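Customer escalation, tier 2.

The customer says the design service returned an amino acid string that "doesn't look like it belongs to this structure." They asked us to rerun it and document both sides in this ticket. The original structure tokens are below, unchanged.
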């Protein structure tokens, strides 16, 4: 199966033009069963290039046969009785057994701008069984907040792994209490806003607990000893001091032997970030 992760910058290419059809066509070329998209907006006309429409609904319409799960990080009043939202969207051609929307920590850091961040999790019915897929977009400006969000992702891996293995009570029969699989194996992906080798990167890969599979950097498994391919700033868009990798796939250690391919699409300029494709035997 194939999973595509891409920060689409609300459909805005390096030409400054917002075009969700272009974004969809670019993503579709990779023939992924699951698309994990970051920076998807609702009612945000003030963003550069404009993003006034309901982008999750629009993107869902461009991928018939896919289930859409949208998770909001920033949810603000628009001053006219509506909401302005910004978050992550997962589109899945595989059945989505259940979905979770996690708000990430947002500790006070008044010295820098920041926004509420989220992680969106789906449990999909993959060919080899239930698989947890989590996509996120961590804070850009604040190291304090980004570090706290990394800890939250580590905790999420521990929670999901343990719940995926443990039997749950079926004593309550009301539908919200449905006993559904969580999936023992997990894929985390998105725009993490740190480079390879940064302290946050090292921390995310550190052992979690004896009974919880650690997270591995999929690039290092598929391309051992090779520097990470740049995923942002490739076509002149600003990314710190130049092109760098800040979009990753991390997988639970039990999936390492199933990783087949990991590629960065460096050709497209339909966003300031590049699509990243993971293929696994799952």
């Amino acid at each position: 199966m194939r999973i595509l992760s891409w920060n689409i910058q609300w459909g805005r290419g390096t030409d400054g033009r917002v075009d969700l059809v272009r974004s969809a066509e670019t993503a579709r070329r990779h023939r992924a069963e699951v698309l994990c998209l970051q920076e998807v907006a609702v009612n945000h006309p003030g963003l550069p290039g404009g993003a006034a429409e309901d982008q999750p609904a629009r993107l869902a319409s461009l991928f018939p046969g896919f289930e859409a799960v949208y998770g909001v990080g920033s949810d603000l009043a628009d001053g006219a009785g509506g909401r302005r939202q910004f978050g992550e969207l997962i589109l899945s051609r595989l059945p989505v057994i259940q979905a979770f929307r996690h708000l990430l920590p947002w500790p006070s850091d008044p010295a820098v701008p920041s926004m509420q961040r989220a992680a969106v999790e789906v449990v999909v019915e993959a060919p080899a069984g239930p698989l947890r897929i989590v996509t996120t977009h961590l804070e850009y400006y604040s190291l304090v907040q980004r570090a706290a969000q990394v800890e939250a992702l580590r905790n999420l891996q521990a929670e999901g792994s343990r719940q995926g293995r443990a039997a749950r009570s079926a004593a309550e029969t009301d539908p919200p209490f449905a006993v559904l699989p969580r999936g023992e194996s997990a894929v985390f992906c998105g725009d993490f806003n740190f480079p390879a080798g940064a302290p946050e990167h090292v921390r995310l890969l550190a052992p979690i607990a004896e009974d919880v599979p650690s997270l591995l950097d999929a690039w290092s498994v598929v391309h051992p000893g090779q520097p990470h391919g740049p995923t942002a700033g490739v076509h002149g868009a600003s990314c710190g001091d130049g092109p760098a990798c800040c979009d990753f796939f991390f997988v639970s250690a039990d999936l390492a032997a199933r990783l087949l391919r990991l590629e960065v699409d460096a050709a497209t300029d339909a966003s300031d970030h590049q699509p990243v494709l993971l293929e696994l035997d799952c």
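Tier 2 assessment: The sequence is consistent with the input. Residues 2-167+177-280 form a domain with the Deoxyribonuclease I; Chain A fold (CATH 3.60.10.10). The longest helix spans residues 143-165. Sent an explanation to the customer and offered a walkthrough call.
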